[in-house]
Design goal:
The chain is α/β, with parallel strands linked by helices. The chain is built from seven helices and five strands, in the order E-H-E-H-H-E-H-H-E-H-E-H. It has one domain: HUPs (Rossmann fold, 3-Layer(aba) Sandwich). The chain has a five-stranded parallel sheet with strand order 3-2-1-4-5.
């Protein structure tokens, strides 16, 4: 039996690569049902200050097609930014996040909000040596 019932993570997943796959497979290894929020194009443009290469609809379709993902949903800035809104929408018992967020003010606050709900946060490492930014740079 897996440690958690429903897991949730979110990301842009532009130019899908093995680092994305590694993350999603690690998430799925710890939960029965994995829901993935795919950040919408407005989030990418306004928060990341980048133009998405692949549209939100296509990125979501790619993520949804993976056998390690049970559902993928396009999410806006509010749900991406406020993990309590994400919890209210998806009712997960674990949030998966990159380990670079561990100890940040934002995630310490989220841990406190989740504690009375019995929701955990698992911080996962990034795959070294591969990133969407590096891929874009090589393509240029």
């Amino acid at each position: 039996m897996k440690k958690y019932k429903v897991g949730y993570t979110a990301g842009v997943f532009d130019l899908f690569h093995v680092g994305h796959l590694n993350l999603l497979e690690r998430c799925k290894a710890m939960c029965d049902v994995l829901i993935v929020g795919v950040c919408d194009d407005n989030y990418v443009r306004n928060i990341k200050h980048k133009e998405p290469i692949i549209s939100e609809t296509d990125r979501c379709r790619i993520i949804k097609a993976l056998k390690c993902v049970d559902d993928a949903v396009i999410v806006d800035f509010k749900i991406t930014d406020d993990k309590m809104l994400a919890y209210e929408k998806f009712k997960f018992d674990v949030l998966f996040s990159g380990d670079d967020w561990k100890g940040s003010e934002r995630y310490l606050r989220t841990e406190e909000q989740f504690k009375p709900l019995g929701v955990s946060i698992e911080y996962l490492p990034y795959t070294k040596g591969v990133s969407t930014s590096e891929l874009k740079s090589k393509i240029r």
